[in-house]
User: Which sequence fits this backbone?
């Protein structure tokens, strides 16, 4: 009886097991269909093209350089286009893509007016709006970069060796022309004859006209010798003028135009580093209307293929004169040995000697900045036109009451471009432009 009960207990399990295997088979069939429909095969995998990471425009040795950073090596299409009062040079990466690219870059005012970028399903286009009627030659370079990246560099150079751009003349009504008649070499064309009407005497034939002597074209005039320029490592020719600054820092041209109109002049231009390795330039600008102010400019070219250009512009009150500024400058020159003769440690020197002078300097610079608030406001608006509210923020911070308990503070007003407002001792506004 016990065995029979066990057998009778197993029969529903066995019958249920058959149904279970049928359900398992259906489940695997459904999973197989799902796998076939939703899991793409290797042939269906979508491959993305070249990624354009970044680009920049710069001037180097009299040449305009367009540098494009890629995730892999690629050779784009470079096609010039010409139209009425418009020349373009289009660099196209077919089937490429880009996540974040600047939509517009400033030009160099020599060959390129500005640069635009277009990203679409067909690829990435970099459009250079060229200066009309300016001939140029092109060179291209493709090379590897650290981190598995690649670089494409397009070089443009103006010169007499390049053919000028020719545009078709405006359309005009065509004049009627005589039918074309072919003649053998040396054969003289027949003289024109006039037939007489019926009843009229034939007109007298005009005497033959002797053939004109052959016209010999004058030899073309020799092309003018190009003006000497600085070596490639030296960048733009060092002339020490606003024209040189325009070429070194095209992204700040509006600012320099404003300063030039305000009466600022380049009073000092210097070269740093060794030519052939790195060629940095520095400039100092002054204006009789603002004797306490000085503008300092530094141009730092890259020392590696993928490194950017760095341009720094300071609007500083370092020209401030008087007993407090002179004493402060003198104390800043002391070395540690001289400090030890007057103070027990370096902390006492800062607290007792420098800190009271810094408070006085901050108050003097504050009064001066408030007096010339309009100029500082215009300076910042021209330097960072995409952020007009930045100038008002700077004036608001300058107007804050000076706290003698603190050494002062530096404010970061913007990150792109980087703008720093220093309120520690001599007030200054510093702007960093990074490009190329």
Assistant:
């Amino acid at each position: 009886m016990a065995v029979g009960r066990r057998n009778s207990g197993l029969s529903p399990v066995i019958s249920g097991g058959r149904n279970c295997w049928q359900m398992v088979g259906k489940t695997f069939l459904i999973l197989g269909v799902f796998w076939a429909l939703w899991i793409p095969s290797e042939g269906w995998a979508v491959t993305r093209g070249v990624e354009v990471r970044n680009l920049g425009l710069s001037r180097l040795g009299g040449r305009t350089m367009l540098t494009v950073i890629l995730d892999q090596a690629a050779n784009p299409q470079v096609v010039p286009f010409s139209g009425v009062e418009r020349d373009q040079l289009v660099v196209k990466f077919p089937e490429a893509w880009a996540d974040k690219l600047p939509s517009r870059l400033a030009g160099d005012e020599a060959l390129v007016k500005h640069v635009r970028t277009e990203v679409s399903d067909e690829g990435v286009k970099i459009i250079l709006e060229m200066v009309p009627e300016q001939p140029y030659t092109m060179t291209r370079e493709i090379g590897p970069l650290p981190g598995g990246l690649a670089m494409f560099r397009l070089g443009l150079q103006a010169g007499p060796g390049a053919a000028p751009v020719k545009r078709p003349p405006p359309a005009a009504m065509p004049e009627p022309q005589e039918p074309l008649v072919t003649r053998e070499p040396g054969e003289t064309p027949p003289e024109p004859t006039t037939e007489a009407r019926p009843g009229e005497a034939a007109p007298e034939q005009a005497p033959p006209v002797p053939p004109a002597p052959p016209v010999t074209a004058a030899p073309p005039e020799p092309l003018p010798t190009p003006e000497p320029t600085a070596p490639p490592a030296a960048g733009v020719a060092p002339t020490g003028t606003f024209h040189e600054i325009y070429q070194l820092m095209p992204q700040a041209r509006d600012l320099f135009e404003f300063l030039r109109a305000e009466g600022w002049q380049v009073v000092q231009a210097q070269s740093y580093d060794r030519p052939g390795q790195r060629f940095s330039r520095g400039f100092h600008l002054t204006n009789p209307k603002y004797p306490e102010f000085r503008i300092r400019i530094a141009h730092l070219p890259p020392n590696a293929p993928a490194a950017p250009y760095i341009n720094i512009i300071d609007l500083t009150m370092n020209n401030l004169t008087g007993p407090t500024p002179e004493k402060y400058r003198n104390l800043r020159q002391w070395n540690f040995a001289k400090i030890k003769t007057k103070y027990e440690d370096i902390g006492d020197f800062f607290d007792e000697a420098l800190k009271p002078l810094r408070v006085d300097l901050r108050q003097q610079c504050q009064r001066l900045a408030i007096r010339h608030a309009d100029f500082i406001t215009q300076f910042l608006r021209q330097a960072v036109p995409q952020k007009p509210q930045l100038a008002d923020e700077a004036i608001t911070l300058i107007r804050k009451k000076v706290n003698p308990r603190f050494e002062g503070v530096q404010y970061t007003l913007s990150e792109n471009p980087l703008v720093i407002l220093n309120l520690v001792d001599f007030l200054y506004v510093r702007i960093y432009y990074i490009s190329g």
User: Anything to note?
Assistant: The chain has a mean pLDDT of 75. Residues 240 and 269 are 5 Å apart (CA to CA). The radius of gyration is 39 Å.
